[in-house]
Design goal:
The complex is a heterodimer. A four-stranded mixed beta sheet of chain A has the order 1-7-4-3. A three-stranded antiparallel beta sheet of chain A has the order 2-6-5, with no helix packed on it. Chain A has helices spanning 9-21, 26-42; strands at residues 4-8, 47-49, 58-63, 66-72, 76-80, 86-89, 95-103. By secondary structure, chain A is α+β, with helices and mostly antiparallel strands. Chain A has two helices and seven strands; from the N terminus they run βααββββββ. Chain A has one domain (4-103): RelE-like (YaeB-like fold), CATH 3.30.2310. In chain A, a hairpin with a 5-residue loop joins strand 5 and strand 6. The longest helix of chain A has 17 residues, at 26-42. By secondary structure, chain B is mainly alpha-helical. Chain B folds into three domains: 1-48, Pemi-like Protein 1, Chain: D, CATH 2.10.260; 51-103, no CATH class; 105-150. In chain B, 51% of the residues lie in helices and 9% in strands. Chain B is built from four helices and three strands; from the N terminus they run αββαβαα. Chain B has a two-stranded antiparallel sheet with strand order 1-2. In chain B, strand 1 and strand 2 form a beta hairpin. The longest helix of chain B has 43 residues, at 107-149. The N and C termini of chain B lie far apart (104 Å). Classes of the chains: A alpha+beta, B mainly alpha. Strand 1 (4-8) of chain A pairs antiparallel with strand 3 (73-76) of chain B.
Chain lengths: 106, 150
């Protein structure tokens, strides 16, 4: 199945500033990003927690408590994880919008 | 805040005036973003990564969705393309926004396509009506001819 990502201008700016903020960890950050991009494009990443209980966005851990927020063009609710978050299955999605990078740390 | 000045030093280093730092709410280790202001100058903004679930995060997600809607995005089809994209971002280059494909139309393109489809359908419909009228006419004429024969 052919899949594509669309990297929003906002996401690009956040990504550039994260590289600045994580000086010295650039290789780790790039390799985690590569892993996420590859997983979304080849379908090996097909499930993720819903980002907000009421919208169509998901999030996946990136590095050091930061998460990537993205929106698949198709998703199904699978159930809930141990933390009570909805888990979405986007195995049939063909387009992912990379939207933001946010800090999940307390 | 009054107008302030700073002198550029070696390796492009610049010290922000204290009033600017205070006005922007910056502290040690914070990242700032420079962006063109459209008049040949640049604007400077704090580039904070916001907390999940905060009002700022929600606002940023909406802005990103708007970016996508208004075609301010880059299409990534492979890890290689993504790496090149990141390289450009880190050099401060503006990524080349790809023309949206037919299945990713912008709002105005979608309206254009809808208008063309609507016009074509209306023409087809009107042709069908004309064809039906002429068929009926022919049918009536044939029946009239048959009656005359009888």
């Amino acid at each position: 199945m052919k899949r594509e990502l669309r990297s929003a201008g906002k996401f690009d700016r956040k990504l550039a500033s994260l590289f600045e903020a994580l000086e010295g960890l650039e290789k780790e950050l790039q390799s985690r990003l590569d892993e996420l991009v590859k997983g979304l494009l080849d379908g090996s990443i097909s499930k993720a927690p819903q980002h907000h209980p009421t919208d169509d966005t998901c999030c996946l851990p990136l590095i050091d408590g930061y998460v990537v927020v993205f929106r698949p063009n198709q998703s199904l609710e699978l159930g809930q994880d141990k933390a009570g978050r909805n888990i979405l299955d986007f195995s049939k999605a063909t387009l992912f919008d990379l939207l933001n990078i946010e800090d999940e740390q307390e | 805040m009054a107008r302030e000045y700073a002198r550029l030093r070696e390796r492009n280093q610049l010290t922000l005036p204290a009033s600017v730092v205070e006005q922007m709410g910056l502290s040690l280790g914070d990242i700032v973003e420079f962006s063109p202001n459209g008049n040949g100058g640049v604007q400077i903004h704090p580039a904070k990564i916001v907390k999940v679930g905060s009002a700022e995060a929600h606002e940023e997600e909406q802005d990103a969705k708007k970016d996508i809607q208004e075609s301010r995005y880059t299409v990534i089809r492979s890890v290689g393309e993504f790496r090149k994209h990141v390289e450009k971002l880190r050099k401060g280059e503006t990524p080349s926004v790809q023309e949206p494909e037919t299945n990713h139309l912008t709002e105005s393109q979608r309206h254009d396509v809808e208008a063309v489809v609507e016009t074509t359908l209306m023409k087809l419909l009107s042709n069908l009506v004309e064809v039906e009228k002429s068929l009926r006419k022919r049918h009536h004429e044939e029946r009239a001819a048959q009656r005359r024969k009888v």
